[in-house]
Sequence to fold (406 residues):
Amino acid sequence: MKPRIGLLCAAAAILTITACGDGGSKDASPRPPSNKATGAPIRIGLVNTEAAGLGFPTYRLGNQTAAAYINDHLGGVNGRPIEYRVCKTQGTPESAVDCANQMVEAKVAFVQSTFELGLDAMLPILGAAKIPLVGHVAYSRQQETNPNTVFLGASIEAYFAGPLKFYADRGKKSITLFFSERPGVKEWTDGLLKPVADKLGIRYQIVQYNQANPDWNVLAASAMSGKPDVIAGPGLADTSCTALLTALRSVGFRGEIFLGNCTEFIKQAPGLAPGVHLNSDSWRYDAKTGTPPDKRKDFGLQYDLLKEAGHEDHAKTGGGGFSDTMTVHRVLSGIKGEITGPAVLKAFKRTVGADTFAGPAISCDGSAWKGTTTCGKSLFFYEVGTDGKLSLSSNGPVDVSAFAPR
Fold:
């Protein structure tokens, strides 16, 4: 199996970044009148990691708030309400297996999970029962190649290859990327990045760091030794992003800096943040430029509904779950006949160029990132301004699907 470098932190950040912003009624789409679903419920499994100290209830609350809106205002799915069967895990394989068995027993049509650390352990059980899994980001090779899965976001590999495309388009010739010290990192990065770099005519090198005790000043100096045009931390956690940025500025790096999905550095080091780039697999509500009006309205609706449901603390971060459920509703509404596991999987696999709630178009037919079941093929790149606000740097979505390993 190919190693995944800092993917759990990256995946959580990816899901949160699409939801940030102040939101509010001024941007929300006009709500349709009450149109309650009254048919037989569609039973859907909802699995989410909510362990003490490593929990993500915000995503589940987003899923559930969207489902309530769909049931009360959109007539459910062709007249049938969504009924979530919730199972919270501890992020362990054992608790995930228990949830998978509960889903089989409950005879759900499919399982939805915006963020679950134990998905790998669930897949054999769900597959045997012909219960598809619909997620957002796959963070293991097993997940993104399993034919019984669908992931609505971009492939994790795209997040590492995407910056090469973005900076090559900006005329940059060299980039240094940070990865944590893990077995097989060099082989993994060469297998993914080398073909991309060769195709784009950009040189890359990697610098590995000890996650337990990184000396960012030494690491920054090491990264600068090759005189790169760009230094990037595509999979760093927020605390590491701030530390790397501080170190790079202190040693006088004048090139471009890319910090993946991090955002806390903008608050923690506001004087150092201007000019830094980050990315997302969706539009951002809080960007000053680039977000289309219809997507702003999506974000406004999402914010208002979460706040009205009593989840104000999660209104800015629950969007990953909310937007996924709204997109799932669009796909399910196109199913004619009984909503079974095979019917759901077929509907997703036939989804090509479909618009999403608050996001870009997706294609779940295998074309977005060859060899995987991910649906997203686009990344958006943003730049931090002197006022701490974000502006879209890329010319709309950057299509990275051509760089999938063959």
Remarks:
- The chain has two domains: 7-155+292-377, 157-285+381-403.
- The first helix runs from residue 7 to 17.
